[in-house]
Amino acid sequence: MKLIAAVAVALAVGAALSVPDVALAQASKASSCSPVGDLSFICDLANVEDMLPVNGGRWLVAGSYKTGSAGLYLIDPAAKTAKDVALSVGKPDPIYTGCPAPDLKGLQTHGLDAVPGAGGVTTVYAVNHGGRESVEIFRLDAAKNSAEWVGCVKMPEAASGNSVAAVPKGGFVVTKFLDPNDKTAFQKIMAGQVNGVVYRWTPGKGFSEVAGTQLSGDNGVVVSPDGKWVFVNAYGTNEIYRVPLAGDAQPSKVKVNFHPDNLRWAPDGKIFATGQFFEPSAPPNSPQGWATARLDPQTLKVTPVVKEAGLPEFGGATTAVQVGKTLWFGTYRGDRVAYRAAP
């Protein structure tokens, strides 16, 4: 899996590898940070695969899918600036047991979720591949640019995590994208084979599989505000599924014309789905085209929002969020995030 071609392909879909896409990151870093077409950028950020608004949109908290980088960033969407979050180890939350503090300088953060709390402190859940396959939990005080680690949950055996979403009244769901020990896992995903699942972690009970989520490359995931539904992407089959988190309701699905990566709630209650147009014959480090669509969670109607050709400066977008009248985009590789006016 650490061959150059395999690394480039696997990172494109968020597989848990410890080797970043160095070639493209260096090429991107050498280029200008000036706008290109309808995209503008904030640069000097390492592989922001996921991000989402906190403190009412005053900030975006972002991950860094590159071992040894910041771990977490704070992006100021008004000032168009970004900074590393100061990380420290705090008092462990007793609901997370049997998981010692990580090497904070060795984090490789992937999918994120954030739950607002009292006093402007936000609980951030971060899928991590740095040193262990886990979900790390932080208490983020954005006003002080600091986050305390308060616990973690290690992933089940043979499971590489991808995206995470908090569940109302405690716990979270997390997607298994693939088995990191299977050297043919990505090829199986692209062939539409089932190899992933959504796990639900409940305090005091641990992990259980969410019925109906055994899919081809389970990727982005969100949970409805009432906690009744899980929305999850099947990367290999270009599908988005709506599955009951509990009860006997029937799952539903819809097809999209790209490989859906992350899901994010839009301000109007719809869901942004963002992903890549994967070309197997393309050279490993060539720019990837990408798209964002809007999903109606009730009807599953899909409406195109943005379609972009891959640029040397920015390609392979993985996530989209909206703050005010601006859309923000992250990518699994490169040294920047992108933004543009919302259509």
Structural overview:
The chain is mainly beta. The protein has a single domain (4-341), classed as Neuraminidase, CATH 2.120.10. The chain has 3 helices and 25 strands. It has helices spanning 4-12, 22-30, 185-190; strands at residues 40-43, 51-54, 59-63, 72-76, 81-84, 86-89, 109-116, 121-128, 134-141, 146-154, 160-166, 172-178, 197-202, 206-209, 218-223, 229-234, 239-244, 252-255, 259-265, 271-276, 290-295, 302-308, 317-323, 326-331, 336-341. A 5-stranded mixed sheet has the order 6-10-9-8-7, with no helix packed on it. The model is unreliable at 1-30 (pLDDT under 50).
List keywords for this structure.
343 residues, mainly beta, Neuraminidase, five-stranded mixed β-sheet, 7% helix, disordered N terminus
Low-confidence stretches: 1-30
Q: How many individual helices?
A: 3
The string of secondary-structure elements, in order, is: HHEEEEEEEEEEEEHEEEEEEEEEEEEE
Going by CATH, what is the homologous superfamily? TolB, C-terminal domain
Number of strands: 25
Give the fraction of residues assigned to helices. under 10%
CATH fold topology: Neuraminidase
Q: What is the overall shape?
A: globular
Amino-to-carboxy terminus distance: 39 Å
Structural class: mainly beta
Please indicate the percent range of residues in DSSP E strands (runs of 2 or more).
Answer: 35-45%
CATH architectural label: 6 Propeller
CATH class: Mainly Beta
| Average pLDDT level | 91
What can be said about the biggest beta sheet? 5 strands, mixed
Strand order of the largest sheet: 6-10-9-8-7
What's the structural domain tally?
A: 1
